[in-house]
Amino acid sequence: MINIENVSFKYKNSDYILKNINFSVNDGEIIAIVGKNGSGKSTLGRLIGGITKLKEGTITIDNINTAKDIKAIREKVGIVFQNPENQIIFNNIYDELSFFLRNLEKSEIENRITDSLKQVDMCDFKDKDLYALSLGQKQRIMIAEILAKNPKYIILDEPTTMIDSYGKEKIHDIILDLKQKGYTIICITNLSDEILLADRTLILDNGEIVAEIKKEELIDKHDILEKYGIKIPTLLSILVALKRKDIDLHVADFSVAELTSAIKEKLDTERKSI
């Protein structure tokens, strides 16, 4: 479990970017953290992952204080950033994935690389040139690199912002698959569709958490997203419209793909009844 208590943060000579942040992340959850640019989302992710040093408040991960044992935290938490090209060290994919595993036995390195590539559906690219891949494929390799380190918690900082719709869909599928395997995921995002992947959505505004919405509450509380400038997912807009016609589909009961199919089925049924 991740616990964030009374966390505030500011850079030197700046105003506070985060103000008295308090929340917990339960094991096995997907949490979406959303907010307008400058709301403090990425800074919060970097603090949780131990990339940025915490100065005020407390963050504990499995009862380990991030300010006291940063090495242990970095073994537990992996972070994938928005632009995969900023994370690449080597041209060759195998070299990239093995770099942080070099202290392990060769057989263990091979097993971890094979398993991580399998989880992101990139096994056929093991010996390829990273720079020859699409942005979406590069991002999947960056996720594989984190998985090879065997973390318990994964922070995805706007992981699909720069990639095309096919790449987004592949990464959404990976996120849901990782949840099924027991990973705990924090998804920092400006993209509305990723809200539908999350068990809970936290809204940051001007450095403060102003709302928390459970997945099953999204239809009834969609106006809160709009209030803070968060674009409503298209599928959620359709569900809201259907509910106004007394047709209820509960978003918590479906994956994104299943929800799309269920909406289509309901709309087809409505058309036939007209």
Summarize the structure.
It is built from nine helices and ten strands.
Please state the structural category: alpha/beta
Give the number of domains. Answer: 2
Question: Low-confidence parts, pLDDT < 50 over ≥5 residues?
Answer: none
Counting copies of identical and different chains, the oligomeric state is: single chain
Read across the widest sheet, the strand sequence of neighbours is 6-7-8-3-9-10
Helix content: 25-40%
CATH class of the largest domain: Alpha Beta
Give the overall pLDDT as a whole number: 90
Number of helices: 9
Structure in words:
This protein is of the alpha/beta class. The chain has two domains: 2-227, Rossmann fold (3-Layer(aba) Sandwich), CATH 3.40.50.300; 233-274, no CATH class. The chain has nine helices and ten strands. The radius of gyration is 20 Å and the shape is globular. The protein starts with a strand and ends with a helix. The mean pLDDT is 90.
